């Protein structure tokens, strides 16, 4: 066997496949990765520190900027934490609007992942198709919230806007369209032999490892563990919908791919039921005190974001501002396993492994 | 190109511009002459010119104002920054003193007023009315208080659905430790009734290990780990979950604020690695036996720990 | 090979579809009414209640009021009103709290400038910014 000299290679922080500013220092021996060290923090904005001086409503726009591909779930986790502390009642209609927007966001987020992951692997056209469909979702969300990415839509006790006229019908019309496209995606990619060879058996880990490393979301479900907070610890009104937890049992990039694609289908199912049950009339804002002051104490809630388990911890002193606010950011936890997955792999698999974890750097760095 | 050349060019350009302007003016005048009612057009054009000039002036003025305002802001901020720090304490004390004095004065005034009311015949009726109103308000308030009390009383009576689970945890802990290693244990109702256990610092690691390995507890998933600066002490909050038993627990440990140091649990749950780095970076908590403790977000050369309540932003360039 | 052929079929099917891209700089982008763009300010409506400056999460609004020139009227009128668009995140909170709708959103989003100073918009500029106003401003 030919021995080669070890080399230190710097990937990023401005590398297109890292989807943000993420740096990876890898040590390679020929084509083999023998050590990897992720360097993060380039996008750290100190959201938690800033939030200590802000009122709860003012923090909501900041949560938009954590996981900027699925800002609705971030909006929701903060509102949900405050509502849990104050034991607020949320009007029915608002709950439905929240679910609809969150599930639309989940689909959009998975579409971005799908498109960019295949782009990383060398296929250009799926990216364009995915962004075409995502643009429709973004337009829907723009119509209801007034923002394309940073929605700032949810409020403690409800949502800011009611659905505009005809919006629900548009969502209704989008569901079959998306189904059709999803089938097309299957034709385009899922059966493609080149793609399958590229992802099968790549970045594999076991269920125990996934649990040890605190992985969540598709990264956990791909090992066969049926764990979805929407089902296992239902929040909001998720217990009213029937849907399945998508799992795969391979624990590799291929499993993660399957889980995410199936999740789009399940989200469409939830959407279908939600628009069907959507109440005709009703308030979108519950009875909320003028100044939001959660009682003294602390809370930790967690919900299922497209990337995994997003949590929010609030320690309150009974003031307008939180004493301490902390987000459990799923990408931050999910990324930890990366060095372990990379060691012993071929260089060419680096991007395939990193991409399959599905990170958003805004969330990793907080 | 030399300076002279440049100047030459400039001059030429200026002359050209002047010539062009001249031409334009001439053309315009010609046009005016052509048009029959030159009298009506004349004032219009002049107006146009002046309005344009005015606009520009206004814009310039506005811009100047805006800049001035920005400057003033900056100055004011600076002044604040330098002045308030040393005097803040004094000010606060003064304010407090003033407030107390005011409150006393107000109380005295009230007393006087009451006396006066009682003395004055004409004002009796009013006073009675006021008294009635007050009484009604008081009654209401009382009602509220009793209500509140009732709810307060009734709450502990309805035990949390999680209480038996907490008891089970406590029993297991008792089985394994002879002495009392817990500082506190309660159900956190505000946090979806999660059983919360506060452990003594020196037993934190061994209890964490027990939580993971004991078959009745089996918390194999670390959902969250973070620190908080509570000004009198530091705290680590760990949220654990057991997929096997479908139960969760919040484990807390308090430590000294000046020299926060705690055992790392990254060897039990590898997922605690980065969160501990984050707590070290942002709060300065030292984790002993951590595999790779580094400042994960801010970098090694950052001064201070931002999430500490006494953090002073330090920046060489400012 | 079968997989590749199936993929090709999807690609071919998409060739006949309508174009979905916008000819953006040449044609304005179609935006929904609720879109949050650069604010429009009505000085005559403002009651100098300071709510917008207080709710702003990035502290980018500065305003000062002065006494009403007509001394028979109480209250204040606006004197200066500046928004610093270097840090405004167009979050919509200022327009949400304003009791008189003196500040509302427009559908304009083109803020590119050659200098940072130009992003400091004052009362006059915000007053003149009166195209594509948002119709629905209160939820
Ligand atoms: S949109 Fe938001 S950031 Fe901008 S001025 Fe209004 S409140 Fe401030
Ligand atoms: S909230 Fe409206 S009325 Fe009050 S100061 Fe701001 S712009 Fe003026």
Description:
Chain C: Keywords: 4Fe-4S, Cell membrane, Iron, Iron-sulfur, Membrane, Metal-binding, NAD, Oxidoreductase, Quinone, Translocase, Ubiquinone. The complex is a heterotrimer of chains A (366), B (318) and C (139). By secondary structure, chain A is of the alpha+beta class. Helix content of chain A is 47%, strand content 13%. Chain A has 15 helices and 8 strands. Chain A has a 3-stranded antiparallel beta sheet with strand order 1-2-3. Chain A has a 3-stranded antiparallel beta sheet with strand order 6-7-8. In chain A, helix 4 runs antiparallel to helix 5, helix 4 runs antiparallel to helix 11 and helix 6 packs antiparallel against helix 11. The longest helix of chain A is centred in the first third of the chain and has 29 residues. Among the domains of chain B are: 88 residues; 126 residues, NADH:ubiquinone oxidoreductase Nqo5 subunit (Beta Polymerase, domain 2, 2-Layer Sandwich). In chain B, the strands form 2 sheets. A 5-stranded mixed beta sheet of chain B has the order 1-2-5-4-3. The longest helix of chain B is centred in the first third of the chain and has 82 residues. About 20% of the residues of chain B have low confidence. Chain C is of the alpha+beta class. Chains A and B meet through helix 8, strand 6, strand 7 and strand 8 of A and strand 3 and helix 6 of B. The complex binds iron/sulfur cluster (2 copies). One iron/sulfur cluster binds next to helix 3 of chain C.
Present the secondary structure layout.
The complex is a heterotrimer of chains A (366), B (318) and C (139).
Chain A: E1 6-11, E2 23-29, E3 32-39, H1 47-51, H2 56-63, H3 71-86, H4 92-120, H5 125-145, E4 154-155, E5 158-159, H6 167-190, H7 193-199, H8 207-212, H9 218-221, H10 229-232, H11 253-277, E6 297-305, E7 308-316, E8 324-328, H12 330-334, H13 338-342, H14 350-357, H15 361-365
Antiparallel strand pairs in A: 1-2, 2-3, 4-5, 6-7, 7-8
Helix pairs in contact in A: 2-3, 3-4, 4-5, 4-11, 4-14, 5-6, 6-11, 11-14
Chain B: H1 3-34, H2 38-119, H3 124-157, H4 163-176, E1 182-188, E2 194-199, H5 204-213, E3 221-229, E4 234-242, E5 247-255, E6 261-263, H6 273-283, E7 286-288
Parallel strand pairs in B: 2-5, 6-7
Antiparallel strand pairs in B: 1-2, 3-4, 4-5
Chain C: H1 2-15, E1 39-41, H2 51-55, E2 61-67, E3 76-84, H3 93-97, E4 103-105, E5 120-121, H4 123-128
Antiparallel strand pairs in C: 1-4, 2-3, 3-5
Bound molecules: iron/sulfur cluster (2 copies).
Residues 55-58, 60-61, 83, 88-94 of chain C line the site of one iron/sulfur cluster.
């Amino acid at each position: 066997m030919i021995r080669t000299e070890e080399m230190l290679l710097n990937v990023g922080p401005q590398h297109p496949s890292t989807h943000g500013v993420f740096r990876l220092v890898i040590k390679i021996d020929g084509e083999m990765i023998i050590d990897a060290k992720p360097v993060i923090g380039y996008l750290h904005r100190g959201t938690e520190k800033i939030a200590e001086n802000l009122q709860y409503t003012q923090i909501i726009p900041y949560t938009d900027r954590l996981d900027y591909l699925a800002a609705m779930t971030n909006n929701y986790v903060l509102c949900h934490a405050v509502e849990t502390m104050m034991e607020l009642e949320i009007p029915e209609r608002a709950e439905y609007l929240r679910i609809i927007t969150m599930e639309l966001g989940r689909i959009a987020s998975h579409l971005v992942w799908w498109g960019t992951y295949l782009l990383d692997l060398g296929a250009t056209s799926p990216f364009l198709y995915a962004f075409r469909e995502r643009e429709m979702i973004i337009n829907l969300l723009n119509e209801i919230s007034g923002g394309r990415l940073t929605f700032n839509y949810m409020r403690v006790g409800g949502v800011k806007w009611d659905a505009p006229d005809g919006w629900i019908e548009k969502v209704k019309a989008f569901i079959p369209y998306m189904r059709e496209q999803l089938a097309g995606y299957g034709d385009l990619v899922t059966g493609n032999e080149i793609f399958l060879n590229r992802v099968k058996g790549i970045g594999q880990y076991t269920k125990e490892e996934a649990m040890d490393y605190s992985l969540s979301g598709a990264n956990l479900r791909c090992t066969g563990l049926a764990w979805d907070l929407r089902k296992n610890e239902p929040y909001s009104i998720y217990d009213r919908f029937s849907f399945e937890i998508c799992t795969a049992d391979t624990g590799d990039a291929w499993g993660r791919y399957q889980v995410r694609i199936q999740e789009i289908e399940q989200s469409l199912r939830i959407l279908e039921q939600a628009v069907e049950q959507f109440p005709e009339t009703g308030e979108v804002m519950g009875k909320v005190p003028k100044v939001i002051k959660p009682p003294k104490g602390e809370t930790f809630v967690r919900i299922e974001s497209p990337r995994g388990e997003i949590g929010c911890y609030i320690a309150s002193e009974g003031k307008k501002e939180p004493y301490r606010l902390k987000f459990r950011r799923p990408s931050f936890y999910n990324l930890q396993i990366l060095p372990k997955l990379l060691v012993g792999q071929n260089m060419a698999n680096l991007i395939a492994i990193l991409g399959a974890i599905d990170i958003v750097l805004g969330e990793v760095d907080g | 190109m030399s300076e002279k050349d440049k100047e030459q060019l400039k001059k030429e350009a200026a002359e050209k511009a002047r010539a062009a302007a001249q031409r334009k003016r001439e053309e315009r005048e010609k046009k005016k002459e052509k048009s029959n009612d030159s009298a009506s057009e004349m004032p219009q054009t002049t107006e146009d010119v002046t309005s344009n000039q005015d606009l520009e002036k206004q814009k310039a003025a506005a811009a100047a104002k805006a800049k001035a305002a920005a400057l003033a802001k900056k100055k004011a901020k600076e002044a604040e920054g330098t002045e308030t720090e040393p005097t803040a304490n004094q000010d606060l004390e003064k304010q407090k003193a003033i407030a107390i004095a005011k409150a006393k004065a107000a109380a005295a005034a009230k007393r006087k007023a009451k006396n006066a009311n009682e003395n004055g015949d004409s004002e009796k009726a009013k006073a009675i009315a006021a008294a009635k109103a007050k009484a009604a308000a008081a009654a209401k308030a009382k009602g509220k208080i009793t209500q509140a009390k009732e709810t307060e009383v009734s709450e502990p009576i309805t035990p949390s659905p999680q209480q038996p689970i907490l008891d089970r945890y406590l029993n297991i802990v008792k089985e394994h430790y002879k002495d009392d290693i817990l500082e506190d244990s309660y159900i956190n109702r505000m946090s979806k009734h999660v059983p919360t256990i506060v452990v003594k610092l020196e037993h934190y690691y061994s209890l964490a290990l027990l939580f993971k390995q004991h078959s009745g507890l089996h918390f194999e998933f670390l959902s969250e780990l973070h620190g908080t600066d509570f000004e009198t002490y530091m705290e680590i909050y760990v949220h654990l979950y057991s997929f096997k038993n479908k139960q969760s627990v919040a484990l807390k440990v308090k430590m000294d604020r000046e020299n926060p140091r705690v055992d790392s649990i990254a060897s039990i749950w590898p997922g605690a690695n980065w969160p501990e780095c984050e707590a070290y970076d942002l709060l300065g908590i030292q984790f002993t036996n951590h595999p790779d403790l580094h400042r994960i977000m801010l970098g090694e050369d950052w001064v201070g720990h931002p999430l500490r309540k006494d953090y002073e932003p330090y920046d060489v360039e400012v | 090979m079968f997989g590749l052929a199936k993929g090709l079929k999807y690609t071919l099917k998409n060739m006949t579809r309508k174009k979905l891209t916008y000819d953006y700089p040449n044609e304005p982008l179609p935006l929904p009414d609720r879109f949050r763009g650069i604010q429009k300010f009505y000085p005559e409506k403002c009651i100098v209640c300071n709510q917008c400056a207080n709710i702003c999460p990035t502290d980018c609004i500065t305003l000062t009021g002065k006494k009403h020139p007509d001394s028979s009227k109480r209250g204040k009128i606006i004197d200066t009103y500046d928004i610093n668009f270097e840090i405004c995140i167009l979050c919509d909170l200022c327009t949400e709290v304003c009791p008189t709708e003196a500040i509302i959103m427009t559908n304009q989003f083109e803020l590119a400038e050659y200098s940072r100073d130009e992003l400091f918009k004052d009362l006059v500029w915000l007053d003149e910014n009166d195209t594509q106003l948002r119709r629905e401003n209160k939820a």
